Every structure is written in structure tokens, then in C-alpha cells.
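Hey, can you fold this one?
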Amino acid sequence: PRVLVALRTGMSADGPGHPGDRADGTGSAREAQELCPPPARRIPVPPLTAHETAELLDAHDQPSWPRPLLARLHRASGGNPRTALELSAALDERVRIHGADLPGPTDPLPVPDSLRRPLLDRIDALPAGARRTLVTAGAAVRPTVELLRRAGRPHAESDVDTCVRHGLLDLPRTSDHGALRFLDPLTPVVLRTVTPYDQLKKAHRALADASDDPVERAHHIARLAAG
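Sure. Predicted structure:
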């Protein structure tokens, strides 16, 4: 008999991986080998592009969102079709049924509980210090351990290791120049909805002071001004 098995593997440049994966993808590769020993054929499925995400939403009778909002849905979904559909449906419910305005560029997207709860379970399991470091990383444009340390997180390296073990962050790769990646791109979105405003403001202020990139500094100053 022929059996089709879908397995989320290591994180690519465009999307999330499995919480148990290592940064080099060997964890998921080993799991795939155990689930599907030879002569199974492995067919990698890349994340959806922004254009493919738009086509997917259109095929499922989702609203024709403005292009900037569609781009945000694509980024937040990480190219995962199920996630994109659920995010779009949640946004449609808020706008069409509840009469809310479309979210602005700095407003968080609505995240349905089916996507939110698994992330919250992992976030809530973090020690307090690691969680604050994760919040700072989520507020950063391009988080690195060194940037987090300069932004007032002196134990950034050990906190990042803790977040990696909890399946929230991926260790940086050589090609990323030290930049940390969230295994699920929805993590910063969910963090914003559950983190007190004062703590978010403190993170942006610290990042504005710590950043040596004028564009990133301007971003954090703008977020502070936007409230």
C-alpha cells in the first residue's frame, strides 16, 4: 500500500519548523527517516509565496484584502496554507461580523485560539527572565543575542537557549549573521497581545537605545510614538 505522510521539517528562510527540530534540520530528518524508512520517497514542499497565498485565499472565498494586509497575513503564516486560511478567517470575522476596522500597520492581527493556544502553552512555560528576553526579541526588527544584551537582557544567551529548548526560537545560522528566528512567525504577534503595554514600551525604548542601525532605531521610536 502507498501511504502519504506530511511532516514539518526544519526551518527555512521563509517559514517555521517543528519545535523539536535543530537549527541544522537533523532532528526532523531523523524523525522522517524513522517514520518513513527506505524506499520512501521524500518530496520537500516549500512555503507558499505571497502570490500563492493570495490565490489560496481567493480559492477559499476569503475577502480580497488590501495588498499590505495580505503581505502581513503571508508573513504571519510563514507560508503555511492552513495558518493563512485561519488568520484570514479570524480577520474576516472581526471585520465583517463584529464591524471592526481593518488593522493598521502597527495593530496586531487577530489570532484564533487554535493557533494561539499552542504558542501560549510554550510561552507560559518559560521562566520570567527568558520570557522578558523573548518579548524583547519579538519587538526587535532583527534580534541577535548581542542586541538583546545591549537592550538590557544581560542573560540573553542563556535565555535564548531556554527559548530554543521550549521550541520558540531557532539558533542563528551562518547565513543569518547571528539573527535569531522564531520557529513560528506568529510568536511575536501573540506576544504583543499578551504582554502589558508598559513592558512592550520598555522593550522598544531599550531597543531604540541599543540599535546601531538608524532605520531600526527609527522603527522603535515610531512604535513608541504610536503607543
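The chain has a mean pLDDT of 86. Let me know if you want another pass with a different chain boundary.
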